[in-house]
Amino acid sequence: xxxxxxxxxxxxxxxxxxxxxxxxxxxxxxxxxxxxxxxxxxxxxxxxxxxxxxxxxxxxxxxxxxxxxxxxxxxxxxxxxxxxxxxxxxxxxxxxxxxxxxxxxxxxxxxxxxxxxxxxxxxxxxxxxxxxxxxxxx
Length: 138
Description:
Elements: E1 5-11, E2 14-19, E3 25-29, H1 43-65, E4 74-77, E5 80-81, E6 89-91, E7 94-98, H2 107-115, H3 118-122, E8 131-135
Parallel strand pairs: 7-8
Antiparallel strand pairs: 1-2, 2-3, 4-7, 5-6
Helix pairs in contact: 1-2
């Protein structure tokens, strides 16, 4: 299934993207270190955001299939850009905090599910994507 996303360049290195099915909109802005104002997500920030939200979403789907929910799960990602040319993302370290005990019977399944998310498989293999899981439940 294809999803249409339209982008309107507003000038000043800012774009407005519209998600076709829902008509929700978001703004992007060039980052300060690349001629922009940094007032919103940059396009490369969205790549990092897509990875983090995809991992959280597929973990949530797997938990739902197993009959529970994971409110309070937290995922953080840091985007590291190259210092040489061409400008590109070189590292996306991710931390996933799951509010379940480390001894939870679905631990391995949930970790494998996160690593199997579509964005993780879509991001170029040269990008370092270390994942740290924190099991914070009691």
